[in-house]
């Protein structure tokens, strides 16, 4: 009897951590199921045109390489004239992924370099009302990745949660969001590719939002051995890099609706290009000290030779299992409505055109983790966040933004 109970409990525990594949974006089919933006970066005011699929394919800014990996890149073959923009890519999944889902991305190279601002993130239909999760995001020569949630006012990240990253701002409703800076080495910049890349996993659950990162050498067997049809057992993954458990100061379901995944690369704009942020890292990279003039304008190579994503796959998973652990435990799964929509928004979103960019659905600039920036600097940025971004929005020319440091 006791043995039977114990076995039953064991089976139950094991099964609660299993996720089944929903969609595999990889190989020759990687770009099926994404929409290309097809307009300039009118969202973060970066100096790029995000090409439509036809152009991005023709210009080889979005393609599958000989290794079978997806490449998304900034144009490095063109000489850009002053006042023009450089070509790049931004793609968004047609599918929306609801609570109880898991998103895995296996990456070999992340864009980096002065002026470069890449992101892998998610958003609901309406921004910021429906929430934003930043999974991979950094700028310029930052050595580390940073993660963040962005919400409307009222959602706070709990202090002292079980995470290996460092919180750099707890208010998810301010301009910079509730940032968690990755502490592990080689999560961005040249070190990331040199270490063989790595894998990020994001669990979107009613109990919380959890992001794990592993460098290539540490990718768990459950992922390293998985193929495009495998189920994923997350029970042995340990402490996430960023943990956002539901807490009395943030009822997640109030702030997040089903999410689309986004991959993009912009240049300069209202994070990487802000003079007070760009200057300390890259101000000596060219004659003017200006992000746009010293990078975007002129020849594309060698400046943008490293401004590309190389991605082995993006896979999405879901589980139908009922929560077994207490809220806040990363391995618990949810009783949340399981409605992963195929190519159209779920109920919360049906009245809105899913393809329309509302103008602000962007990974928010998160100026809290400058390389070499002190904690005091970070705190100042967070406090200045709201008024700063309001100010920024009212100023047409990014270079006119006053120094904050
Ligand atoms: C893609 O962009 C080019 C250049 O702006 C335009 O000529 C073409 O019609 C667009 N194609 C589609 C399918 O929108
Ligand atoms: C994935 O792995 C499983 C178990 O090893 C195997 O049965 C299945 O055929 C594999 N699927 C693909 C698409 O390779
Ligand atoms: C959390 O938000 C959901 C969705 O808005 C709502 O139905 C629920 O009542 C809220 N729970 C609490 C404890 O506020
Ligand atoms: C552009 O960058 C790629 C690497 O991303 C490199 O192989 C290629 O040679 C560069 N193009 C030019 C024109 O230098
Ligand atoms: C950005 O451009 C898109 C596509 O033309 C448009 O739908 C959207 O309203 C624009 N957003 C802003 C903030 O200008």
TrEMBL record:
One of its GO terms (molecular function) is hydrolase activity, hydrolyzing O-glycosyl compounds. Keywords: Hydrolase, Signal. Residues 23-280 form the GH16 domain. Residues 1-18 form the signal peptide. SUPFAM superfamilies: Concanavalin A-like lectins/glucanases. Residues 324-374 are annotated as: Disordered. Residues 329-345 have a biased composition (Polar residues). Residues 346-358 have a biased composition (Low complexity). This is Glycoside hydrolase family 16 protein.
């Amino acid at each position: 009897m006791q043995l039977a109970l114990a076995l039953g409990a064991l089976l139950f525990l094991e099964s609660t951590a299993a996720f089944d594949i929903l969609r595999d974006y990889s190989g020759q089919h990687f770009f099926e199921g994404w929409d290309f933006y097809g307009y300039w970066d009118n969202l973060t005011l970066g100096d790029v045109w995000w090409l439509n699929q036809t152009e991005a394919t023709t210009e080889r800014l979005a393609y599958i390489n000989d290794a079978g990996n997806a490449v998304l890149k900034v144009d490095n073959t063109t000489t850009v004239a002053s006042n023009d923009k450089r070509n790049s890519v931004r793609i968004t999944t047609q599918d929306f992924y609801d609570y109880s889902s898991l998103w895995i991305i296996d990456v070999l190279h992340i864009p980096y370099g002065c002026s470069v601002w890449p992101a892998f993130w998610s958003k609901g239909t309406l921004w910021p009302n429906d929430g934003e999760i930043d999974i991979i995001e950094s700028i310029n020569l930052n050595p580390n990745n940073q993660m963040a949630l962005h919400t409307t006012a009222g959602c706070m990240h709990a202090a002292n949660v079980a995470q290996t990253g460092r919180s750099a701002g707890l208010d998810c409703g301010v301009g910079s969001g509730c940032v968690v800076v990755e502490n592990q080495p080689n999560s961005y910049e040249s070190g990331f590719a040199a270490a063989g890349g790595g894998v990020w996993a994001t669990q979107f659950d009613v109990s919380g939002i959890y992001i794990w990162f592993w460098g290539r050498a540490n990718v768990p067997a459950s992922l390293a051995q998985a193929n495009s049809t495998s189920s994923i057992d997350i029970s042995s993954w340990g402490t996430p890099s960023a943990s956002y458990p539901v807490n009395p100061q943030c009822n997640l379901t109030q702030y997040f609706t089903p999410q689309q995944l986004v991959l993009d690369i912009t240049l300069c704009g209202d994070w990487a290009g802000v003079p007070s942020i760009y200057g300390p890292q890259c101000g000596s990279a060219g004659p003017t000290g200006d992000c746009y003039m010293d990078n975007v304008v002129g020849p594309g190579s060698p400046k943008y030779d490293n401004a590309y994503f190389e991605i082995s796959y993006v896979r999405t998973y879901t589980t139908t299992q009922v929560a077994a652990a207490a809220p806040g435990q990363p391995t618990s799964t949810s009783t949340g409505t399981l409605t992963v929509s195929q190519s159209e928004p779920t109920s919360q979103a049906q009245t809105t055109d899913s393809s329309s960019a509302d103008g602000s659905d962007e990974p928010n600039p998160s100026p809290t983790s400058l390389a070499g920036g002190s904690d005091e600097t970070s705190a100042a940025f967070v406090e200045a966040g709201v008024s700063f971004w309001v100010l920024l929005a009212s100023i047409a020319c990014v270079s006119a933004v006053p120094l904050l440091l």
